[in-house]
Design goal:
With about 80 residues, this protein is α+β, with helices and mostly antiparallel strands. The chain has two helices and two strands, in the order E-H-E-H.
Length: about 80
């Protein structure tokens, strides 16, 4: 692995934008040893179509999803 200096800031409007539009780049940066930070401008509460979930439940779900992804990225860096 050839680690590069510097960190990356990914800024997106919606929680899944970086995954859909730039997931490969983010994975490469993590593999290179870079720290990747996210700024999300919305909570993702509008992109869920389960009528049984409240807005707060969807927000909590999106936050939990990002904590899981963060943990996986940290594990990849440790390998």
């Amino acid at each position: 692995m050839c680690a590069r200096a510097g960190s990356v800031l990914v800024m997106t409007a919606h929680p899944d934008d970086a995954d859909v539009h730039g997931g490969g780049a983010v994975a490469r940066w993590v593999d290179e040893g870079r720290e990747v930070h996210y700024v999300l401008f919305t909570s993702g509460d509008k992109c869920h179509h389960d009528p049984t979930m409240t807005r707060d439940e969807v927000i909590a779900l999106r936050r939990a999803e990002h904590r899981v992804l963060d943990g996986q990225a940290r594990e990849r860096r440790a390998d």
